[in-house]
Amino acid sequence: MSTINYLQASDKTISDIKSKGAFLVVKSEINDLVNVMTIGWISMGFIWGKPIMTVMVRKSRFTYQLIEKATSFTVSIPKQGLKEALIFCGTKSGRDFDKLKECSLSIAPAKKITTPIINIPGEHYECKIVCKSEMLSECLCDEYREKQYKDNDFHTFYFGEITEHYHI
User: Fold this and answer.
1) What angle do CA 52, 58, 59 make, to 5 degrees?
2) CB of 26 within 8 A of CB of 91?
3) CB burial of residue 163 (10 Å; 0-12, 13-18, 19+)
4) What pLDDT is recorded for position 1?
5) Sign of CA dihedral 21, 18, 42, 55
6) Burial (0-12, 13-18, 19+ Cβ within 10 Å), 114
7) What is the 3-state secondary structure (H, E, C) of the chain?
8) What are phi and psi of 20, to 5 degrees?
9) What torsion do the CA atoms of 144, 20, 97, 43 make, to the nearest 10 degrees?
10) Residue-wise pLDDT tens for the chain (168 aa)?
11) Where along the chain do its domains lie?
12) Which fold has domain 2-167?
C-alpha cells in the first residue's frame, strides 16, 4: 500500500471516475450501517486551505439517509474490472439489497477515518466531511436543470477533506 499525492493524480482520478465509475462508501455514525453506491461525478480541488473531494448524492437515494448521519466517506476506484459490480451498485438500492454481499465485495478499515474502503486493488480516497450544501434549483442554469433534473431529484454536495489517498 503506497501513499500518493492527490494533486498529481487528480486528472487521472477524474478521468477514471468519468469513464468507468467508482464506489462511494458511507457509514452511518448512528447505527454503523455501511452502504456502497456507484458515482460518476466528482470534483477535486483546494478549498479552505485543504485538499477537497466533492461528491453528490440525490435525496431519493438510500445512501443519502446514511451520509446525512456520517462524518466521512471513502471513494474506491477499481484498478480494473468490476464492471458488473459498478453497474449493480449504481442501479440497485441499499434499501432492497446488501450490495456488498450481492457483488461479493468486502470492506477493509480505512487508515484515518471510520468509513471503510472497498477491499479491491485500485485507488482509494478517505475523506472527512467538512461541509454539505443542498443544491438550489433556482441557482442552477436552465440547461442543466432540464437535462439532469427533470424529476426535481436534486443532489446534495458533500465536501470531504482528503485525509488519505493511496493505491493497494
Assistant:
1) 120
2) no
3) middle
4) 52
5) negative
6) middle
7) CEECCHHHHHHHHHHHHHHHCEEEEEECCCCCCEEEEEECCCEEEEECCEEEEEEEEECCCHHHHHHCCCCEEEEEEECCCCHHHHHHHHHCCCCCCCHHHHCCCCEECCCCCCCCEECCCEEEEEEEEEEEEECCHHHCCHHHHHHHCCCCCCEEEEEEEEEEEEEC
8) -130, -10
9) -50
10) 555 566 677 888 888 888 899 999 999 988 989 999 999 999 999 999 999 999 999 999 999 999 999 999 999 999 988 999 999 999 999 999 999 999 999 999 999 999 999 999 999 999 999 999 999 999 999 999 999 999 998 999 999 999 999 999
11) 2-167
12) Pnp Oxidase; Chain A (2.30.110)
What's the pTM value of the predicted model, to 2 decimals? 0.92
Write the single-letter amino acid at 26: V
